[in-house]
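Researcher: Here's a chain I'd like modeled. Treat it as a single chain, no partners, no ligands.
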Amino acid sequence: MQKENLMNRSTIFAAALAAAAAMSMASAARADDMSGMDMSAKPGASPSDKAYADSMRDMMKGMAVEPTGDADKDFVLMMMPHHQGAVDMAKVELRYGTDPELRRLATDIVAAQVKEIAQMKAWLEKRGK
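Model: Modeled as a single isolated chain. Structure tokens:
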């Protein structure tokens, strides 16, 4: 049951990131066209709220890649900031969160996403992109 709950939370987290990616792509074809997207924390927000808002803003900006026509390259260029956003949000959980289950999940997310980011960077370097 605990493993199912952890998997459900992981799935929800992944779905939230995917939704953020879709919204980013739909509303901003370029990094400088972020009009209408308020990723700032509200006045009086908690430190974790501010940190999550910062991570989302950075992720959205990074994912707004000018398409190159190379599906493989575009995938990697958009996924690296997407994964970095997951790492940044997980680090917020590790800094401010207290739930042991979510802290373990956040630790796992950091480890997995850092490894995948390195794999994508290596792919780009191998191909001179």
